[in-house]
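Appendix B. Extra example for self-study. Work through it before the problem class; the solution is given directly after the inputs so you can check yourself.
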Amino acid sequence: MPNGTTITESGTELQPARPGEERGTATGWLQDLVFTVDHKKLGMLYVGTGLFFFVLAGIMALLIRAQLAFPNGHVTSPQEFNSLITMHGTVMIFWVAMPIVFGMINYLVPLMIGARDMAFPRLNAFSFWLTFFSGFFLFLSFVAGPGLYGASGAPDAGWFAIAPLTSSAFSKGPSIDYWSLSVLISGIGSVTGGINIMVTIICFRTRGMTLHRMPLFVWLSLVTMFLVVVFLPPLSAAQIMLTLERFLGATFFDAQAGGSAILWQHFFWIFGHPEVYILVLPAFAVISEVVPVFSRKPIFGYPMMVAATVLIGFISAGVWAHHMFTVGLNSFGVTFFAMATLAISVPTGIKMFNWLATMYGGKIRLELPMIFAIAFLFQFLIAGLTGIMLGVAPFDWQLNDSYFVIAHFHYVIVGGILYGIFGFLYYWYPKAFGRMLDKKLGLWHFWLFTIGFHLTFDPQHFAGVLGMPRRIYTYHPGRGWELWNLISTIGAFFQAAGTICLVVNLLWSARKGKIAGDDPWDAWTLEWATTSPPPDYNFETLPEVRSRRPLWDLKHPEDPDWKFE
Amino acid sequence: MEIRIIKFEFTSQIPTNVRNQSRSVSSQSLTSTESEWKLPSPRVVGMILVILTETALFTIFVVAYLYYIGKSISGPYPHEVLELPILGTVMLLSSSVTIVIAEQNLHKGVNSLFNLWWVITALLGIGFLIYTGVEWHKLIYEDHLTISTNLFGSTFYSLVGLHASHVVVGLILILMILILNLTGCVKHYHHEHVIMISWYWHFVDAVWIVVFTVVYVIGAKS
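Solution. Structure tokens for the complete assembly:
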């Protein structure tokens, strides 16, 4: 058996480098991080990477707000301001939201479906390290060379790198190449990760966990990863074209050679709009787990929740051009995309009502995850409503590229997605570290951040309606924007204070927090059936899954769910 | 791609005892109404998803090609320089047949015939690449069409080149299997791995049918 021998040999060769051998020492700890293919460690690495870049991109946001606090501000130069807004957007989407989304799915999905690990553990590590290094690659641009006006090294053409600003005629230095190549690399990491997660969900569910018994978190992860697999390649394709254009002189987006700059926008938003759902569906997934557990009721309307998720996945493929109403579509295009945009709010509305119906009549426990979930419901409602407003084309013609749009999508991403992520951290941190996050510090985080969030983004709606365009470096006094901008900046620093509370809490509680136990929230999904933190092999034994709440069945043998399903 | 293959090699060594350990424990301890618990093979699902994501990638390049048909503002134009790549197409499409014959011999356990047809498949793929190389050489040096000449050049070389790069990846996989088989490393439990590679090869062929239709039929007259 020559094959078997080689395998064993390579196994023994690897022995000295195996993680955990030198546990406790610094090198052992580092080896553990670098060589690991364990989905739990990779999940935590993903989330940690995301939080690291969250702090960096948050500092950029503070600089932007400081610049805009007063009229005629000069905190940064105009060129630096362009770089800051581009980097803030790009990093927040691709290296904060995406890694955290992948991290939480990575950590939780195998535990929730009772699997030993991901389907392809090494591919999983590969995906993570691509994401990790592509982020640092992007930050190298700060020291790499001149950008739009030869002043700054970082990409400065806006986070959606609008053509023809990105052509080599206008962006002479390598900054745009840093943008397109780093996002391309992270895109490859996301697609391989997405395939891995989908295969895990489809092929590695434990005995009895049929599709209609999967936790909603897993269902939403499945749809999310489908969107990743199908809608990230268009962005990669567009970036390959952009790279060909910048290095080899292709003319895809060059109007002088007959190309179309608008085609870039189409390709970007074919990716860009499903991306919103790639980020928000995992937040929905967290809320769908937190709300039932803290209302002490099973989720209301499980089949409708699944159907609405799948429907969102499908409709999200046909709404991209609502980002382009002002570009000039024909009337059919405008009507189609406006209607599709309004249609997608229907399944989203179904979800909102199902969460509310789950809470209705429930025995609500106001623990930290639930507090963030409730804030999510309020804030995401407003985000959805302004989304409907912007989906109506004539309204969008008036307010596109104003601060109203900024306020809208920050309501979605901060008020919605980020609150989902916070809920995730507070809910599953005890599982990952075996210790609770401190409640007092968590409340400080919640109130500082929520007050800061509303101070920052509520006034931006007004500034937008008053005509303040997005991406402007500064503005003259006397247009009625001063007050709103000042409040906005103050709010940003409140958010920073809240974030400091979170970071301190995460670090402090890992060593000093209250011991959590295996199942601190009295929850119902499988990840709480193992120890906290779970062992490398995840489960010693698994209950056979006979309903959507396997742990409920285990805790209440006299009144199991499967009798009623 | 290479990484995926190596992974299959390793995971296939351990599946029944380690990966299903937790499952077997639970199945022993419980009497179940669902005694059958069978899920699809991760390799098959994984390959389907790879094909799905590659399809999305190609779609954008095909859309760009279709969108820019007839939009070039300077020559050379497709109707002046493009010829139907009959020989290349025949070679690539027939390689889909030979790889199926090779697979059948693998199932029957006739190793020599498997190697023979597998080599023929690889040769047909290499022949296709040589044909494309000759075509590109003519386009570049005789017709002076490069990727930066006009929109036709940009979209043509990016779409056909993307396909050709997938043929190269497919060939690397096929040659890898050949070497592994010649050294006796392909066991009976590796048949599914081999079949997945042939799926990928069929996908590359199917994409060529689309590229052929779009580039050499629809776009040829502009």
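Self-check: Residues 78-112 of chain A form the longest helix (35 residues). If your reasoning did not lead you there, revisit section 3.
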